[in-house]
Amino acid sequence: MRLGLIGLGRIGQRHAGILAGLPGVDSLVVTDAVPAVVKQVAEQLGAEAVDTPQALLEAGVDGVVIAASTESHPALLTAAVEAGVPVFCEKPLATTAFDAAALVQRLDGADVPVQIGFQRRFDPGVAAVHAAVRSGELGWLHTVRSTTLDPAPPPRAYIAASGGMFRDCGVHDFDVVRWVTGREVVEVYATGSNKGEPWFAEVGDVDTSAVVLTFDDGTLGLVSNTRYNARGYDVRLEAHGSADSVAAGLDDRLPLRSVDPGVRFPAGVPYPFFMDRFASAYRAEFEAFLEVAAGSRPSPCTMADALAADWIAEACGLSLREHRPVRVDEVRG
């Protein structure tokens, strides 16, 4: 299969390495707004370099991966769909949930598959939690807990353009709890604080947040996020039911030090970065995309899924600002 990759920033270059190493990829075509980066990546991986996204779409690709900046996603997604090229696009769909909703409406009915990059769905532990919940072995679900704790904050410029804690970081948690439970979030209550760099407040964001989610069947969700977890990158998912409880992320690289006498867990070196924590998941989601592009499976994470997580994030932002519970329908309109 011949794939195209648009965007060669931090995650785009990581994706390029994965795509070039997949057995199902015969050739890779790359482009970016910075010609020197395109040249460098193409030489490193033996990929074909082109000057523009349009040239890439006209290069006979069987599928395209969009890893460019968020503000470019709507135009690039639309161009790919209109060209009839299956698309994998990193989250989010657009810079705001309202722009994302407009994009989904615009492309509604198009017969071109689109997969959105929520890699946690492809993590083996998270997938096992999903299977346990859906099989019924946990009984009826009463609580899900999802945690994302970053070792250190990204640069100020990134945070200022990211959409904030809920749309940049927590949105992964919102997507995964929807996917695992198979239920929709109807109400949120979000709070947050700033005890680190003062510029978080200056750009209208928080560096630590906590969210209570209420699902349409009464299940409760708890989401915890921070930019300051110096021990390492911590992502966990718990599902608690009437018959059993399970968790993902409790391996020997968990960045949480037990102080109980005689306890030696965890014994491993903590994950320093999200790309290390989810190395196998990124590969698995691209293997899935090859099947999507070949027409042998439906998209495992649709634009509608991404929009649903965006609306939860939007409700969290309103809840934080107004210090009250917010129903998701209130922001969706």
TrEMBL record:
Record-annotated Gfo/Idh/MocA-like oxidoreductase N-terminal domain positions: 2-118
GFO/IDH/MocA-like oxidoreductase domain ranges (all copies): 127-245
Source domain of life: Bacteria
GO molecular function list: nucleotide binding; oxidoreductase activity
Native organism taxonomy: Bacteria, Bacillati, Actinomycetota, Actinomycetes, Cryptosporangiales
UniProt cross-references to InterPro entries, sorted A to Z: Gfo/Idh/MocA-like_OxRdtase_N, GFO_IDH_MocA-like_dom, NAD(P)-bd_dom_sf
Protein name: Dehydrogenase
Family: Belongs to the Gfo/Idh/MocA family.
